Amino acid sequence: MLEILINAVTLGSLYLLFALGMSVAWGTIGILNFAHGSTFMFSAMVAYFVVQTVALPMWAMVLLGAAVGTVLSVLTQALVFNLILRRNPDLLKAEMQIVVGGIGTASVLLAIAQHYTKSVPFGFSASTFKVATYQLGPVHISNVQLVILVAALGLAGLAAWWLKSARAGLALRAIGVNPEVASLMGVDRSRMALGTMAAAGALAGIAGVLLTYYLGSIAAETGDSFLISAFAAIILGGIGSVAGVVTGSMILALAETLVVTQLSGTWASAVAFGLIFVVLLFLPRGIFGRKEVRRT
Amino acid sequence: MIGWYEANLVLIEATFLNFLLALSIQVPLRLGVFSFAGVGSYGLGAYTAAILTLRYDVPAFVAIGAAVLLAAVVGYLFSLLVARLNGLYLAMATIAFVLIIAVLATNGGELTGGANGLYGALSDLTTGGVVAVCVVVAVLLALTERGPLRRRIEAVREDPELSLSMGIGVVPMRQMAFAVSGALGACAGAMNALLRTTVSPEEINFHLIVLALTMVIIGGSRSWIGAFIGSVIFTWLPSVLASAGRWQDVVYGVIIILAAIFMPTGLLGLVQTLYQKLRGRRSAAVTAEAPADDTAEERALLQALGGESRGGVQ
């Protein structure tokens, strides 16, 4: 039972790393990035091609993934979302265009990845990192799981502290409440948006590399299934809240793991999504969601 | 011409089926409701029609009719369930609905054929029948795009609170949208299952949701013509791009991105804006029309709100 719990928390931490940036970007600058899953997968793929030529240690791979994720995310923001918003300044009306722009970006990245990996799963067996398992009291835990747990909880804590206490975090939250007033108060919206997307991309890259270490290998299509799970976790917890993403990711991972181990694999997504459905019926804004103040 | 028609019959049929699928997303969207439940109804309709045809050997119109009715009822009941949700929270709940339908189909045992799906649902549905259904649907939807009904729909989309205070039944209209969306999705699914004689759970996935949404947004989300444009583009684009060789998927994605950036009101909106600009230039000498930098959407809204609001402002 403890093993199941450890596995569930590891999966939840990966969901958390992936969904954190997406949730903050969505809750503050109002951008729901559908290319987040492809950014995540693409970062892992670039790291894979680098490790084929140079045998890198794990920390270098994680940094590389973060760097690639940052670059991709910033490019998506500058070349797609920014152009959409400039032509269509009303965020509510631009929402659908942003979703579709993200879908287009995702299919470009997916097509490139499928072409270079020939749709074959890839892994980091060439890395210098070796998986080891430790015995902690009654449970077995691998070093990959430890890294994932520490990275996810550390980064989520950092993000929560930064949003709450730092001056820039306050500015970002102000954009989330009212973009126009925030600009009038001297908040540079486009710079904050670029910074948020960069951080979100870095988190996606880290999640991609760590997932590949954890599972052994991932495929170009893995990003899509992660995107749906992350979307579910964010909605479950409440958009834009760090505590919400942590809760949503853990609940989702626990539910999926329990169903897969106790029932059968084919029911996993039904139970996970049934759960979201039920939670939304009772808490229409997610567990930690704040009441929307904007009209219509 | 006959040769081309026969060679591309599958794509021609797919265009009309995609048109109905796109409409099942567009109808709620016109009321400002982000619901993808129509894609779930697509699966529901496909399985209902296939099961009825396989087990009871009913004629096509009975199978499709039963599927449409069932999905409309399910859509209505679903709308009661999600009445408190809106925006992207509603979108997530409807995505969950779609994926749950797919899982139910996978685990349905003998009734749904499990992961393999159902085979051999031979029926008497013809391409002509599909086109006839699409024409009827298009005519009915065109009727909702004119007169008082169109004004009510636009008012509900732009400002639900205001519409409520003006005496428009926002809640019944939304419930109606869910039922219509379910009927349209089921119609597309049922006809697809009967034309292809097979249905499998893999067809009902996230990609179908993405395809339906993309067709509506790129084509134009305000009119059935937009949905038709979108379905023509996205049914034929892959085969047109086949000439681009191995980079066709990249080109496909780039086209979607460019459309999202440069056509905020969809292809239909772009055409309307250009047409109005041309007409505006011709009539500019006679009357000072609305400023040229007004978007087509704003102008349409101004028109929809009627003379009184324009009079009130001036």
From TrEMBL, chain B:
<feature type="transmembrane region" description="Helical">
    <location>
        <begin position="60"/>
        <end position="81"/>
    </location>
</feature>
<feature type="transmembrane region" description="Helical">
    <location>
        <begin position="32"/>
        <end position="54"/>
    </location>
</feature>
<feature type="transmembrane region" description="Helical">
    <location>
        <begin position="125"/>
        <end position="143"/>
    </location>
</feature>
<feature type="transmembrane region" description="Helical">
    <location>
        <begin position="88"/>
        <end position="105"/>
    </location>
</feature>
<feature type="transmembrane region" description="Helical">
    <location>
        <begin position="227"/>
        <end position="244"/>
    </location>
</feature>
<keyword id="KW-1003">Cell membrane</keyword>
<dbReference type="InterPro" id="IPR001851">
    <property type="entry name" value="ABC_transp_permease"/>
</dbReference>
<dbReference type="GO" id="GO:0015658">
    <property type="term" value="F:branched-chain amino acid transmembrane transporter activity"/>
</dbReference>
<feature type="transmembrane region" description="Helical">
    <location>
        <begin position="6"/>
        <end position="25"/>
    </location>
</feature>
<dbReference type="GO" id="GO:0005886">
    <property type="term" value="C:plasma membrane"/>
</dbReference>
<protein>
    <submittedName>
        <fullName>Branched-chain amino acid ABC transporter permease</fullName>
    </submittedName>
</protein>
<dbReference type="InterPro" id="IPR043428">
    <property type="entry name" value="LivM-like"/>
</dbReference>
<keyword id="KW-0812">Transmembrane</keyword>
<feature type="transmembrane region" description="Helical">
    <location>
        <begin position="250"/>
        <end position="271"/>
    </location>
</feature>
<keyword id="KW-0472">Membrane</keyword>
<keyword id="KW-1133">Transmembrane helix</keyword>
<feature type="transmembrane region" description="Helical">
    <location>
        <begin position="176"/>
        <end position="198"/>
    </location>
</feature>
<feature type="transmembrane region" description="Helical">
    <location>
        <begin position="204"/>
        <end position="220"/>
    </location>
</feature>
<dbReference type="Pfam" id="PF02653">
    <property type="entry name" value="BPD_transp_2"/>
</dbReference>
